[in-house]
Amino acid sequence: MTIVVSSDISSDSASRAKHAADATPDLISAVIDEAGKLAAEVIQPTNQNGDREGCHYNPDTHEVKTPEGFKEAYKKFVEGGWTALDAPLEFGGQGLPHTLKFVVDEMVCSTNLSLGMYPGLTHGAISALHAHGSNELKQTYLEKLVSGEWTGTMCLTEPQCGTDLGMIRTRATPNDDGSYAIEGTKIWITGGEHDLTDNIVHLVLAKLPGAPNTTKGISLFIVPKFLSESGERNPAFCGGLEHKMGIKGSATCVMNFEGAKGWLVGEANDGMRSMFTMMNEARLMVGMQGLGLAEMAYQESLAFAKERLQSRSLSGPKNPNGPADPIIVHPDVRRMLMRQKVLNEGMRALALFTGHQLDLSVAHPDESARASADDLVQLLTPVVKAFLTDEGANNANTGLQVLGGSGFTTDWPLEQLVRDGRIARIYEGTNGIQAMDLVGRKLSLKGGQLVRTLFRVLSGYLKGNPEAPHREELKGAMGALEKATMWLATGEGNKPLLESKLVSARFYFEKLLPEIHWLLSDIVSGKDSMMDMGDDHWAA
Amino acid sequence: MTIVVSSDISSDSASRAKHAADATPDLISAVIDEAGKLAAEVIQPTNQNGDREGCHYNPDTHEVKTPEGFKEAYKKFVEGGWTALDAPLEFGGQGLPHTLKFVVDEMVCSTNLSLGMYPGLTHGAISALHAHGSNELKQTYLEKLVSGEWTGTMCLTEPQCGTDLGMIRTRATPNDDGSYAIEGTKIWITGGEHDLTDNIVHLVLAKLPGAPNTTKGISLFIVPKFLSESGERNPAFCGGLEHKMGIKGSATCVMNFEGAKGWLVGEANDGMRSMFTMMNEARLMVGMQGLGLAEMAYQESLAFAKERLQSRSLSGPKNPNGPADPIIVHPDVRRMLMRQKVLNEGMRALALFTGHQLDLSVAHPDESARASADDLVQLLTPVVKAFLTDEGANNANTGLQVLGGSGFTTDWPLEQLVRDGRIARIYEGTNGIQAMDLVGRKLSLKGGQLVRTLFRVLSGYLKGNPEAPHREELKGAMGALEKATMWLATGEGNKPLLESKLVSARFYFEKLLPEIHWLLSDIVSGKDSMMDMGDDHWAA
């Protein structure tokens, strides 16, 4: 097959599509079609073997070989211009909307999450460098990262610290030539070493001499595997690979920086700000990973449910000439498929809404509209990350359940989707960290302005749509959200200790038992919303 | 180490402990202590290698080799008398309470689910044979199954049918000597072939000539690997192993019966009844698997949370001399640990209550008390299976989340617990099938008597404990349960089809959105029930 999208959009179309507002529906539609082809025909065929074969580490050369097929698929991904989709025009990017990038991300993550992570992390490095790097650094690195000729990494975690980055020990000592000597060990570095490209560009958090032992003493450095001018090998070596439950085709590296040459990105001791440029972008991408895997799980379980014949429908045979009916006729199977479908639709709507706000925050001509859009992006980033990965994982698990025993075997793709997706609830800040970001930071930011912006949008919708279906339920949910927000803003004091069993009991009765009222309303709302989906509408 | 339990209880104690009422607290306590030692010192050390090595199939000999260490651990399990714990006295069993067996099951499943499945399935075969087999069959097989010298299997599923057993194709043709020639292929047969014992006894569902093509045309046969008199190899061969997401040390076999000699167990065409003797027992055991894995996940994540230093407590340093506080001080980590702990406690209480009812249903001197206990066992069996495996899987996943990125690596046991536990929601009837059994069968059985018995027990508790903590919440929950039961008993009619998006929306608003009221009450009930657990009480 031929990936024609590059010729369509990378030259004249790209210069036309300066930002979100310029991308026409036809162009968007063509890009999405081509992304679908790429995902189905180039990326997906590498997925199962990537899991089975995994990555190979050579301790003598410190080199990593990716699974068979990855290099060729990545080459096509690069040739198609996909690494450049929403990257800045001045460095060879196509400048298309971020929203469109989200759509493509979902497809890539659906079809091979491990492979998608190499360009995924690169994208974050591009953004950090573009936002915070000097002109010289941008000129040296951006074009090759945008084109996909090189990839990028994000080197944060160390053995003694993940969440608590104030504790990092990697040191940066100034050299005479304005560069720094980077010394230290980083772990869990995605794409830290691989054979997809000739060079790898590491963005590394480290401490300058005398910097305080807090997050205010961290600086960001760019450390290439090979120095761009001399071609010399920089002593930034992979020391081994992690053995993981999933995403086995993604090289998760221990990286040893042994006096490697690096250059400061942004201001000294201001590395957390640059890091968050990468991190916020990565969090949105991880949300799309959760959705992508859930969507693939839905498609696979739906297909299985239509094929597998077992037992008869309660309302009489639906496949009278066969030995049994397809299991999609059974209420419990439909319940599972409905839950997958509805939550996937809702997650996608939330993600694309957020992507659209991201585009508006950059490209809207009105300043206050840009600010409002930015409020929403900041508020919703932890929600997209946590909600799409928690419910994405649940949906992948539900998909496996639809297949029954088959789903537990490696003959079907579901168990890999479940394993691959498990990490998304953890990396780029666990979902508990996302909750802290939302409640501890975003709700009080600018005196509560972010959440007020959201309520204004929701109220506007309710006011403007007096006949909308389920308007009253939405209003009720919004009321509950307002109450919860209010409660979180005012807080509550401590109470004295109780005996451990009483604490257990209270936790249960306060936190878990009230689920019963939800379950009750689920039960008495009956089966119609499960059973009424038309046969042709499962993929709609 | 020495397993002393056998000498303690297998001879004089066992003959003393005829049934539940005879087991003294001291005896129970000694058995539990010894089971704990066995689990920790003999079984657990085989767990990780069992997962990594898996089982080996030799296509030339049709033989299966279990992972290294399994054979020795199984030998100690047998020598300790553990296969005989609650088995009938007259065939060498110890006749101890089923409740005690549940406690031991939890420990075995906690420490190596794969290994535990070989004797676990044997136990079901013993029960079916004891309840339905002829005296001759019992004399031939029971003693060796009870002693663990032989193991048993349950051969139900075929490629074209799992849930829908009416569709089985395996045939039983009468031989001249009163035996039958069994011909057909069974799949997903746990322990169908292995090297732990010299003989394996298969209990096989098959159809007699002319039997109807429904579940009313199924008979149960006993088919030994080696014929007990002649020692001749019976043509019941393993045709291969499944490749699975987890429980890799458990040999999941394709079994080809090529005219193998079998004997009828129970009446012709009444095989489903015998099968359900095994199945109901297996369902309770699978519930304990879910709990066992969840308990191990809790212990592992709790230990990690006490060791791992990261960030400071919001209320000031708790480990001022260290570089950071242990993560157990953080509210979100405590929330996860509390959820694990509380649900594990609740699941264990439900399981042991059910086990106790099982003992009462056999051993209580009063006939109506036996009947009431049996009502509760029947009603609660699908609840124990589904609730303990769903929430067990959730708890194992929560445990992984506590470890963050470490939990996703194979350096820690959490990811194996999650993978191993995933099957428990599926086998011995998926949890959707359990829901059907509860709602479609158990609620209406004997005109609704089973659930009325449960309400009587709950009302009795409320009446007898006017000062019980959380009495009002429990009353409210019971009211919701009564309403739901009533609604399920009366049902509701169909409504016309709607457009697919409207169906999606309705499903969401009816089934999923009401969760928000639960979440709201979770939020406004505050943090005390998470934060008040005393440091010494996490294991209490």
Automatic annotation (TrEMBL), chains A, B:
<feature type="domain" description="Acyl-CoA oxidase/dehydrogenase middle">
    <location>
        <begin position="154"/>
        <end position="258"/>
    </location>
</feature>
<dbReference type="InterPro" id="IPR025878">
    <property type="entry name" value="Acyl-CoA_dh-like_C_dom"/>
</dbReference>
<feature type="domain" description="Acyl-CoA dehydrogenase/oxidase C-terminal">
    <location>
        <begin position="269"/>
        <end position="438"/>
    </location>
</feature>
<dbReference type="Pfam" id="PF02771">
    <property type="entry name" value="Acyl-CoA_dh_N"/>
</dbReference>
<dbReference type="InterPro" id="IPR013786">
    <property type="entry name" value="AcylCoA_DH/ox_N"/>
</dbReference>
<keyword id="KW-0285">Flavoprotein</keyword>
<dbReference type="InterPro" id="IPR052166">
    <property type="entry name" value="Diverse_Acyl-CoA_DH"/>
</dbReference>
<protein>
    <submittedName>
        <fullName>Acyl-CoA dehydrogenase</fullName>
    </submittedName>
</protein>
<keyword id="KW-0560">Oxidoreductase</keyword>
<dbReference type="InterPro" id="IPR006091">
    <property type="entry name" value="Acyl-CoA_Oxase/DH_mid-dom"/>
</dbReference>
<dbReference type="Pfam" id="PF02770">
    <property type="entry name" value="Acyl-CoA_dh_M"/>
</dbReference>
<dbReference type="Pfam" id="PF00441">
    <property type="entry name" value="Acyl-CoA_dh_1"/>
</dbReference>
<feature type="domain" description="Acetyl-CoA dehydrogenase-like C-terminal">
    <location>
        <begin position="489"/>
        <end position="533"/>
    </location>
</feature>
<feature type="domain" description="Acyl-CoA dehydrogenase/oxidase N-terminal">
    <location>
        <begin position="59"/>
        <end position="149"/>
    </location>
</feature>
<dbReference type="InterPro" id="IPR009075">
    <property type="entry name" value="AcylCo_DH/oxidase_C"/>
</dbReference>
<dbReference type="Pfam" id="PF12806">
    <property type="entry name" value="Acyl-CoA_dh_C"/>
</dbReference>
